[in-house]
Amino acid sequence: MSKAGFRVLDSDLHVIEPSDLYDHYLDPAYRDRTPRPTATRGAYTSQWTVGDFTFPRPLGRGRVDAEQRAATVLKDYAAARFDSVSQLRAMDAEGLDIAVLFRTLPVVCVDAFEPRFAVALCRAWNDWAADFRKPDPARMQAAALVTLHDATLAAGELRRAVKELGFVAAQMMPSPVNGVNLHDRAMDPLWAEAERLNIPICFHPAPNNYSDTHFVNRFLTAPSTTIAGGLNNPVELMAAVASMTAGGVLERFPRLRVAFLEGNCSWLPWLLWRLDEYWEMAKSGETAKLEAPPSEYFRRQCFISVDPDEDQVEWVVQKLGDETLVFSTDYPHSDSHFPEATNLFLKLPLSEASKRKILWDNCARLYNLAGAA
Q: Most buried residue, 95, 169, 235, 322, by CB count within 10 Å?
């Protein structure tokens, strides 16, 4: 398959979790806290309850125009409850050769969850995703869901998902857990295992208010959709870029690949300039001793996704080049441009060579899928 002569690899294709996922896949030891859907709309679960914690999805219900369009465009896929067969049909409609599957609602991220329960929730999702992709595992690759409640436990689950389930990446929220930042050395066991396994760490925010540290908590009242919906993902990813580069993680793990997904890329030149500027001013007193400015670590080890209609990417390529950019459609979310996402991207003011890199080459390099058909 190709789209206008381009092979396409979606760095971040979402799935819609079925409401009974945890009934079937959660370790029986935790069945008294099985996540329950407490608000549903057809195939969508818009609110989960886990024990004493309830996770609404306020932003997803606030994009009225986008929701109305999605209800029409995704009608047949929703009727199939977004199962594996419909996922492959959607990939055909969009012109995707391969996609890496990501979660929609990460109900694992509450600070108060004890680490083993948080990892059990991850394990359940990973086992379900392994079954979901069975109809065509070569086309539907997957990123293992992990959480940072305990980096050693997370490393063990990542190892299982890669070695036993054949997953090609780790996916996680970029936010601190229990006040522990990504650059804290307590997180090093996970980065070390990902480096050893030669698979990337992929940061993907979510709009739910899982903990007090999440940016979205500042905008849970009107006009939350416009403000938090527009800013949440980029702001969360900016902090993650800073932690992984200026925080010294990529200095300590020089072969670790990292991706920052679904938060735009247009802000990246400014952020790297800002981090470099402050590193120059403060490097003699920094506790994280870096051998190079933060931007060099990003160029060497990092990737970032571009939205299909993000025409500001033209300036990103001019300032930083086209080696770190990857593509995603964001199917099947209401703000996705499916089934025209790839067509929209092909209209961006980029050279054909840059489009080929972004649609395929860079993403294949990120996920170590260079030999894929």
A: 169
- Residue among 81, 107, 165, 98 at smallest CA distance from 361: 98
Greatest Cα pair distance, the chain, in angstroms, is 60
Give the whole-angstrom CA distance, residue 277 versus residue 122. Answer: 38
For 59-77, the pLDDT digits (tens) are 445 566 777 787 889 999 9
pLDDT confidence of residue 59:
42
Task: Count CB atoms within 10 A of the CB of residue 138.
Answer: 11
Mean pLDDT of 302-308: 98
Residue 29 token pair: 């030891």
Beta-ladder partners of 157 = none
Contact yes or no for 130/142 (Cβ under 8 A): yes
Cα–Cα distances (Å) from 25 to 37, 168, 180, 242, 253, in that order, read 15, 21, 29, 36, 33
Helix axes 224-245, 268-282, angle to 10 degrees: 40
Of 265, 355, 371, nearest to 4 by C-alpha is: 355
pLDDT tens figures, 73-129? 999 999 999 999 999 999 999 999 999 999 988 788 788 899 999 999 999 999 999
Amino acid at 156: G
Helix orientation angle between 224-245 and 294-301, rounded to the nearest 10 degrees: 100
Q: For residues 179 and 213, is the Cβ–Cβ distance under 8 A?
A: yes
Work out the end-to-end distance of the chain between its first and last CA atoms, rounded to an integer number of angstroms.
Answer: 10
Residue 349: half-sphere exposure toward Cβ, Cα within 13 Å: 8
CA distances from 145 to 25, 201, 320 (A): 14, 10, 30
Per-residue pLDDT at 51: 83
